[in-house]
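Q: What would this chain look like folded?
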Amino acid sequence: MGDVRRAAVLGSPIAHSLSPVLHRAAYAAMGLDGWRYDAVECGEDGLAPLLDGLGPEWAGLSLTMPLKRVALKLADSVSELAERVGGANTLVLRDGRRHADNTDVHGIVTALGEAGLGSPGAALVLGGGATAASALAALAELGLDAAVLAVRDPGRASEAAEVGERCGLAVRVVTLDRVADHLPAGLVVSTLPGRAADAFAGPVAASGAALFDVVYAPWPTALAAAVERAGGTVVGGFEMLLHQAVRQVELMTGRDGVPVAAMRAAGEAELVRRAAASTG
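A: My prediction, written as structure tokens:
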């Protein structure tokens, strides 16, 4: 039996987060019997008082929307990457201090590398939110020096574009109705929610591009299915979620050798269970 330690994922809404399944699977496989991981509903205004009330048993927090930006202001130290991306999805709590980090970029880089997409060449990113910003940072890490960012409203894409430029990318912002003009691309990254990317399934599939789609449920999306039918390589959002969680477990526990296979199996099983429940 190890020391009693706690961690959790915070955000709003949080009920459907897959993080507890992934982290608990890691703890079980690593023999961390005294570790506990929960999901806690928390909005922006609630983060500061929640952090102030945490005891020494807390090892870390995973952060989802809408907490990634405000976390930077409440941390004692911030990693260079989290600073560049403008958001932290991880707070490591140690020795009374809060260290903010970003493992989303690691999740994307690792997921693409595993799929053989570690050198994607030209890239087209759909959507301009926080995940698009992390995707642009990941593309820069993979060696790209330019990318196209396609968004509904260019006026709301400035933060994501600035992240890309801080990471060394020349970012060209276009509107989503011009996607076809920027195909083919070696890699299309869709950060659009739900069915918002359905309209691009035909053009992207016909272009021969590989696809990274951040959606993981329901899966496959129409876009992913079209690219798969066309013989293209597809990476889903679950792989990103898995690998960012692996890095979080490393940071929070201070241990290497995190059991990726056990976490993947637990996450996939939970997604199957949820899909069955939603259709039953």
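The CA atoms of residues 68 and 88 lie 5 Å apart.
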